[in-house]
Amino acid sequence: MTTPVTTPERLTRSTTPGPTLLHRREVSETGIVHLGLGNFHRAHQAVHTAAALEAEDGPWGILGVASRSAAVADALRAQDLRYSVLEISPEGSRVSVPAVHTGVLVAAQDPAAVIDAVAAARIVTLTVTEHGYTIDPRTGSLALDHPGVRADLAGGAPQTTLGQIVRGLQRRLRAGGAPITVMSCANLIENGNTTARLVGEFVAALPAAERAELEPYLAHVAFPNSMVDRIVPATTDAYRAEAARLLGVRDEVPVPAEPFSMWAIEDDFAAGKPAWERGGARFTIDVAGYELLKLRLLNGTHSLIAYPGALAGCDTIPQSSARSAIRAAADTVLREDYLPTVPVRADVDLEEYVAQLFTRWSNSALGHRTRQVASDGSVKLAQRVPEPALHHLAAGRMPHGLALTVAAYLCCIAPPAGFDAGPHAAAMSDPARERLAPFACRPTTEFVAAALGAGLLGTELADHLGFRARVAELVDLLVRHGADAAARELTLTEEAA
Ligand code: CS2
Fold first, then answer.
1. Residue 33 pLDDT more than 70?
2. Nearest CA to ligand 1 atom 13
3. Are residues 355 and 489 in the same domain?
4. Which residues line ligand 1 (CB under 6 A)?
5. 279 and 314 share a domain?
6. Is the same domain home to 236 and 302?
7. How far is the CA of 42 from the centre of ligand 1 (A)?
8. 377-436: per-residue pLDDT in tens?
């Protein structure tokens, strides 16, 4: 990347270079409220929406809601809500400015405004990370003992995403009850159905009068499933410098992204929608196939590249996937453990899809860090590992690659006593760290039993003695001989099978 450039002028409405604008008309009406103003939303949904509006105008400006931190919202306000997306590949970088936001809010500062915004929207979209859904990992249901959920159910200013949505729906109902769409854009199994179920569970746990008021209204809320796909790293100063170089003005919040972007959306909307199909997305009646393909082949394999890679000292995904042992293990987990559990789609050439994944993971110009993919593993792995693992175990086959994913995760987040997991593992954030730490001093088999028993991957997999034993063996191998050796063992085991 280039050396930092100091450009005094800031990116604003008047300084945006015209050719970088994805959408050139003024967007004045807010039709979409988006919860989760992170990089993923700004490089994915905002870009597809800008392209759709450029092709076909409509009342679909986006009000972006950050949950806690005001940093992005403040920077966007100082830039007339403008920011740039850097498309980065080994062939070079391209810059564009979506310019589709009509406002920003910070939920922690202004929860009442978020309720009003949700109530007034036609579509509510969300990218709040897997743990923003406040799911109890043991049961897969809404975590009714979560302090934020409890407070939201009691009627306080909403602290959780589910609370924001339900209180917004309640206000909309009281203002006439027009239909509305709530669309999850998360890497969750059946993200729309899951969101509908969690909203239903939240409503069912409300006091009787509120429950009776809201339950019939849920029939007027659509919850389409969707599959979102774009690799979007965190912003660093190097990306700010690159944005300044390409724009000629200073953008404090540019978003780096790979060139690839895909969005498949179930066509189930209650109150209209932008012409997203004209902005690079596709509407389909069957999203499930795309979802599983992406969640398992991309996200699942990504986790296997991230954890052993971090343990082997790799800062980035391209560095990790370039290590021959890890690359071979990634290929094995993808083909042996994930692929047999996804439905075959006639419209997807699987060999091409897989080859494209490895090319995307090798984008060395994009500094996608192992710690980013590996963070929040306690909630991500629950979406990726248990179902395929149980599928193979039921058929009498050990899913060695899934066991290695779990073993490497444990070594990173709760390093066994005396084992130094290294700086990349230490930098991973995970809400389960504290819960798992006390188990790390136990003998390996007890450690693995206790960690899985703490509700990481659901009860069924935690109770499977054979799977636990394999994870324990791999933890020992990782600790004694390192990540490359464990990854190599995986390919040898598969060859012998
Ligand atoms: C990654 C995803 O962080 C992760 O868990 O697997 O964020 C991945 O980069 C995106 O889903 C790609 O679409």
1. yes
2. 229
3. yes
4. 187, 229-231, 298-299, 302, 372-373, 380
5. no
6. no
7. 15
8. 999 999 999 999 999 999 999 999 999 999 999 999 999 999 999 999 999 999 999 999
Residues 262 and 229 in one domain: yes
Expressed in angstroms and rounded, the spacing between residue 226 Cα and the centre of ligand 1 is 15
Closest by Cα among 185, 135, 197 to 160: 135
Q: Whose CA is nearest to atom 6 of ligand 1?
A: 299
Provide the token pair at 365: 């110009």
Which protein residue's CA is at the shortest distance from atom 10 of ligand 1? 231
| Domain count along the chain | 2
Quick one: pLDDT at residue 129?
Answer: 86
Cα(147)–Cα(143) distance, integer angstroms: 9
> Both 181 and 291 in a single domain?
no
Q: What is the pLDDT of residues 249-301, one digit of tens each?
A: 999 999 999 999 999 999 999 999 999 999 999 999 889 888 999 999 999 99
How far is 430 from 448, CA to CA, in rounded Å? 17
Distance 260 CA to ligand 1 centre (A): 13
Handedness of CA 329, 330, 332, 337 (dihedral sign): positive
CA 389 to chain centroid, in Å, comes to: 21
Segment 342-365 shows an average pLDDT of: 92
Are residues 51 and 93 located together in one domain of the fold?
yes
- The best mutation among 189, 298, 356 to test binding of ligand 1, ranked by most ligand atoms within 8 Å of the C-beta, falls on 298
335 and 267 within one domain: no
**Same domain, yes or no: 275 and 203:** yes
**For residue 262, which atom of ligand 1 is closest to its CA?**
13
Q: Whose CA is nearest to atom 1 of ligand 1?
A: 373
The backbone region for 72, taken as left when phi is positive above 0, alpha when psi lies in -120 to 50, beta otherwise, is alpha
Residue 436, domain CATH: 1.10.1040.10
Q: Which of the listed residues 268, 284, 300 is the one where a domain comes to its end?
A: 284
> Is residue 462 domain-resident?
yes
Hey, which bits of 358-465 come out as E strands? none
464: containing domain: 287-496
Query: Cα of 102 to ligand 1 centre, how many Å?
Result: 27
